[in-house]
């Protein structure tokens, strides 16, 4: 009978955990959801692992969605649904994003070319950075009369 040292076992488990994090397989994903379920619902891990995987996954995702108020997060989940329905969805979505970005860049270039403000409320003001800061006539010398300030301060009290 051969024995594995505790250090060897620790090293093996660390390597397996890192591998599961870098390239998770179905078993690693299931363990992740079981850990999340165990934490969320205060259930021993071995009990969570014995439950129906669909129940565990659904409960964890529903809990995550309950805490999501941001539309971006909900859109991320909708993207998953759309990808399941239509395999071409990812390509179409990427093309839409690229088209939107190209149009926005063209509009911005046109606005800058015409010297228009970013917002209509800024009408008459240029949003372009001036070539050189305007010259100001700052005093070359001067001082503060502290006695006058003390006199003003005593009048306020």
Key descriptive features of the protein:
157 residues, mainly alpha, 2 domains, 7 helices, 66% helix, extended
Task: Write structural notes for this entry.
The model has no long low-confidence stretch (mean pLDDT 82). The termini are far apart. The chain is mainly α and 157 residues long. The protein has helices spanning 6-22, 26-40, 45-50, 53-66, 71-85, 89-114, 146-156. It is built from seven helices and no strands. It is extended, with a radius of gyration of 32 Å. It folds into two domains: 1-67, no CATH class; 69-122, no CATH class.
Topology:
Layout: H1 6-22, H2 26-40, H3 45-50, H4 53-66, H5 71-85, H6 89-114, H7 146-156
Helix pairs in contact: 2-4
Short account of what is shown:
The chain has 157 residues and is mainly α. The chain has seven helices and no strands.
